[in-house]
Every structure is written in structure tokens, then in C-alpha cells.
What does this fold into?
Amino acid sequence: MHIEDGILSPLACAAWYGVTAAFVVPGISEIKQRIRENLMYKPFLAMVGVAVFVISAMHFPVPVTGSCSHPCGTALAAIIIGPFATVVISTIVLFFQAVFLGHGGITTIGANTVSMGIAGGMSGYLLWRMLLAVKCPLWLAAGFAGLAGDLVTYLVAALELAISLHGNVPLMKQWMIFFMGYAPTQLPLAIAEFAFTSTVLVAMLHRRPDLLPKFLQEKETRILQKRESEL
Amino acid sequence: MSNQVNASSSVVEDTRFFDGFTRTILAVMLFLLLVIFASGRYMSSHAMKGAGTDDKVNDLASAAARTGHHPFIELPGDAELGAFSVANFFCGVIVGHHWLKLFGARPQSPTKKPADN
It folds into this structure.
């Protein structure tokens, strides 16, 4: 999903920058609010930002397709630090990856943030909330959020390319052509991200539940109280 | 010899090389490396290039746009490995720094009295 400089038109780049800006502003507000609630959110945010940087630059070889790709980690980030805060850290992460590692580009930071930070993070977060609302076990909801976040990131990256470059080819066809470039390699990694997201969230809940969103802490407390009353 | 030291900050630190945390992290790292080595070995034996999907799709997109694509910075040869190593070293330092604040041992209160028998 790291679209490089020179592929998208200046107009498309500007448009994706605009969409990103619309999410970064509430993201900064979310960060300020969470810091007011819990001062330890600051080092937590920094740590999650670095984790997203490393995870989204970590290329794993996938022998099924003979190519390499990387997970994203933004669905997990959206669950534990908040969906809008994830957009802010994704923008910073993509900037550093473009400048120092040659991953992505400067003109395409907006487009790449939309796919990884906004679409990946938000889709994972929303799916997670929906699954929790229907009483899905927490680990399973987190896993599906990781899986969905990963795949949606690549779906949106392919859509961004298709919108700009489909020409006379139908948009849907061009979208699927680009997505099929990603999908075979990305599917095994999305399954790995299922396991990773689930494991990390459960571990977090056991070690530092106070760092997680309040409703999740309350949910965990209710589960523990129910178990105690059953005993 | 005791593995526990009293630091000036009164935080009790474990100085063993292979404590539980290190063993777990090394096990996870070895598992990931084994997966990478095994996949790499398979791909190498089947003459697969192992190129990144991002690059493949960027090439595809460039062909559709009839333009060239280029990263902001193109690092030659091992310089790329160097950049990744530097970035990940400092990422490790930052994570470690914050890890201690968030998940490290809590300082014991110096005023805490031993429990009465």
C-alpha cells in the first residue's frame, strides 16, 4: 500500500491530503483528551507509533506467491489508542518511512494515510465494536478486526490507484486488477495479523487495562465480577 | 550470587541474562526468523524473486499511467539495510524506554513496612 511518488496526479495527491487532514484534526483532539484522562497515554502512544512504524516496514516472504509484503498494525492501534489518534501516528510513520526508508513517497503521504491509517484503522475498529456489540468474545473480535484492517488497507490502496489510473477501463475492473496484485500475498499476512492483534489485545488487557479505552475496562470488570459471582 | 540489585531509585531490578521476558521474546524472534528462513529457502529453490507486492503494484500502476514511479529516496545496495538497521535500532531504544514506564517493575515504596507476623 506504499504508493510511490510519480504515480498519482497532483490533483489526486492534493485530494487525499485533504481527506487525511480532515481526520488528523479530530485525531489531535482525541490525543489531547486521552492524555488528560491518563498521563501514561503519552508514552503508550509513542510506543504504539513506533510499533506501527516497524510492523508496516516488516516484509515477510510469502512462499505461496513468491513475493513479500508487510502487515499494517493499524487495526490494533485503533483499538488501543483510538481510531483518530491512529490516523495521526500513521501520517507520522508514513513520513518517516518515505524520508528514511524509501517506502512510499512524500506526495503520496495523504493517499497512503487514507488507506493504512484511516481505512485500515477505522474498518478494524468499527468491526471490532460491532462484534463486541453482538457478544463476540474479545479475542475473536480483535482478531477479525486485525484481519479486516489489513485487507481493507489494500482494497483502498488499490481503489486509490484505480480511481486515478483506470482511464477507459471500467473502474471496478481496474480496481480488482490492482487488488489482485496485493491480495494473494496479503491474505496469509492478514491471517497472521488476526493472531497478532488478538494476542496483543488480550495481553494488554491482563497487564495494563488502565491504558485501554474506558468501555473496555468496564467490560472486563463486568466479566471478572460475573466469574467471581459464579464461583 | 543474588540476581537482585537495589538501584538508587529503589527499583528492584533483575539482572539475569535469560529471565522470563527475554526467553519469551527470544522464542518469538526465533519462530519468526524460522518462518522467514523456511519461506526464503522455499522461494529460492523455486526461483521465486521475493519482490515486494508494493513494488509490483507500483510497477503495474506506472504501466497504466505511462509514467515512472520513484521513492523519495533511493538507497543503493547495502545502504538500504543500513537505513533499516539504524531505524529499527532507535525504534527498539524508544520502545524499551517507554516499555519500562508502562510495563516495568513498579518501584517499591521505601516507607512500606514489613508485614506484622
